[in-house]
Write a sequence for this structure.
């Protein structure tokens, strides 16, 4: 049993490393680092679904394996398609462009290492999918359906957030303004919140006193929160918004929760 999980970790690590090397090649060839996130999302979906359907004892995938594989595939196709459509309309992602500018002449080498680290850091996400799919009970339980509901809520919430932001940006009168309509009036980053929320599905499916490996799935939402809230999500985006929106965004920061949706403050303090 232990060797199976260790082999899975190795296979996941190698797969992600190869795919992120491909993302680097695309980024270098096109000059558009937006494709990095597109490829990362599809890569996570591909490796995640593959790990979920990895045969158990040579048997065909059971219902839970298909369920978990379908969940990660749905997530990947929805988010990857959204990022791809957005990337096709820009010349470069301003977050990655700012990082590359700081790196200077060594940007190509450092970008490769950065993307390899991103792939390495994604191992807990795929491993959570793998572990959840191997819960030692072939029959689906209430927990499995609750996990489905959580992921669907996460996907729907993120899709609504993205649609609200797209609508706001499509209005020329909103140029230079800050969106505080809909979900954006409750969280400054509702799309990031719902992305994180969806990863709670795998611990819900897997955690049980009869399945010690299930606790490893907690690494997925913990890692996703850390990366979105403190690394590549909120910090660089907020810096960018301060530069482009100034005091308007500072006022928005005072009134609206940074991550978890909460009722907005009536007035700036």
């Amino acid at each position: 049993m232990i060797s199976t999980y260790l082999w899975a970790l190795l296979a996941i690590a190698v797969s992600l490393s190869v795919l992120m090397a491909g993302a680097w090649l695309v980024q270098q060839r096109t000059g558009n680092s937006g494709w990095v996130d597109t490829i990362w999302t599809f890569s996570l979906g591909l490796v995640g679904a593959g790990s979920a359907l990895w045969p158990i004892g040579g048997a065909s995938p059971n219902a839970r394996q298909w369920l978990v594989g379908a969940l990660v595939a749905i997530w990947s196709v929805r988010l990857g398609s959204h990022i791809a459509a957005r990337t096709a309309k820009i010349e470069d992602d301003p977050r990655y462009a700012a990082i590359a500018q700081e790196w200077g002449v060594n940007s190509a080498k450092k970008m490769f290492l950065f993307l390899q680290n991103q792939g390495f850091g994604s191992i807990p996400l795929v491993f959570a999918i793998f572990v959840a799919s191997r819960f030692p009970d072939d029959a689906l339980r209430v927990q499995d359906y609750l996990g489905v509901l959580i992921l669907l809520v996460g996907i729907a919430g993120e899709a609504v957030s993205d649609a609200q932001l797209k609508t706001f940006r499509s209005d020329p009168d909103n140029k230079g303004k800050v969106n505080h309509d809909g979900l954006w009036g409750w969280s400054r980053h509702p799309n990031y919140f719902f992305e994180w929320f969806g990863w709670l599905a795998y611990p819900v499916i897997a955690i049980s006193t009869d399945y010690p490996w299930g606790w490893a799935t907690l690494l997925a939402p913990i890692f996703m929160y850390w990366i979105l809230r403190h690394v590549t999500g909120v910090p660089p985006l907020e810096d960018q918004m301060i530069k482009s929106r100034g005091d308007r965004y500072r006022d928005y920061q005072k009134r609206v929760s940074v991550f978890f949706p909460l009722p907005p403050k009536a007035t700036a303090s």
